[in-house]
TrEMBL record:
Name the record gives this protein: Class I SAM-dependent methyltransferase
Organism: Nonomuraea monospora
Any GO molecular function: methyltransferase activity
Domain Methyltransferase: 40-133
InterPro entries, sorted: Methyltransf_25, SAM-dependent_MTases_sf
Matching CDD domains: AdoMet_MTases (cd02440)
């Protein structure tokens, strides 16, 4: 089964495609405090959960969401309609790395999608190209090592030891890229567990409801993911969302 479809099905009960609770998502957006009539961009928006909530919080803002697949767009539009913000949301099926716009943005998000740019540093370089000079803000979510991973775990993850830093090193990487850290949220173990149980559980439920080749493929993916999480990176891989200001 295609990876994008697996991800779409797995996020059915947790549309925030990161280990972040609804309350903490809103807290981060409130902390951002974009200016009046803000332009907001999400690179790798998925189901646009961040943008829909941001438009609800800031009724004069407009937003663009970009994702390589439109599998989450129908759900995003439905939620935007429900919240009364659909007229201020534009969704673009495109590569986040190739997206261009005619005007800069006041707030640019890239949470859990830094792989689209090849890591944190190139993500921050790409984000800067979209930000309003001096006053532009970024919300960027990235993994970090809660504790050093074992060589065996690195092999299972297909990762290098320096793919992530520890929390202090992750903040340093962001600031070395030309940003000041305004705020941050390190996801709790409870947020991780809620995310992973939802991810594997939603995919498992879909698989059991759809017997056949695709169902078997989805069930296998759910089991493999759960094993890698529970017997691998749980408590080792962390996630931090940084609110950054361009300097």
């Amino acid at each position: 089964m295609e990876r994008n479809l697996i991800s779409h099905l797995a996020h059915a009960d947790h549309p925030i495609a990161a280990p972040i609770s609804e309350d903490n998502l809103e807290r981060l957006l409130v902390r951002a405090r974009p200016p009046a009539r803000a332009r907001i961009l999400d690179l790798g928006c998925g189901e646009a959960a961040w943008l829909v909530r941001a438009l609800s919080l800031y009724p004069d803002a407009t937003a663009d969401g970009v994702d390589l697949t439109d599998s989450g767009f129908a759900r995003a539009k439905e939620e935007a309609e429900r919240r009364g913000v659909a007229d201020r949301l534009r969704l673009h099926r495109a590569s986040a790395a190739d997206f261009t716009a005619g005007e800069p943005y006041d707030l640019v998000l890239c949470v859990g999608a830094t792989h689209a740019f090849g890591g944190l540093a190139p993500t921050l370089d790409a984000v800067r190209a979209h930000l309003r000079p001096s006053s532009g803000l970024a919300l960027v979510g990235e993994g970090f090592w809660e504790r050093p991973p074992s060589p065996g775990l690195l092999v299972r993850l297909g990762a290098e030891p320096d793919e992530y830093a520890d929390l202090a090193g992750t903040v340093a990487r962001a600031e070395n890229a030309g940003y000041a850290t305004v705020y941050g949220h390190a996801s709790t173990l409870e947020e991780w567990d809620e995310y992973e149980w939802s991810w594997t559980g939603s995919l498992t439920r879909w698989a059991l409801d759809h017997p056949g080749e695709e169902g078997e493929s989805a069930l296998s993916a759910a089991r493999e993911h759960r094993e890698l999480w529970l017997d691998g990176y749980r408590g080792v891989l962390g996630f931090v969302t940084l609110l950054l200001r361009r300097v």
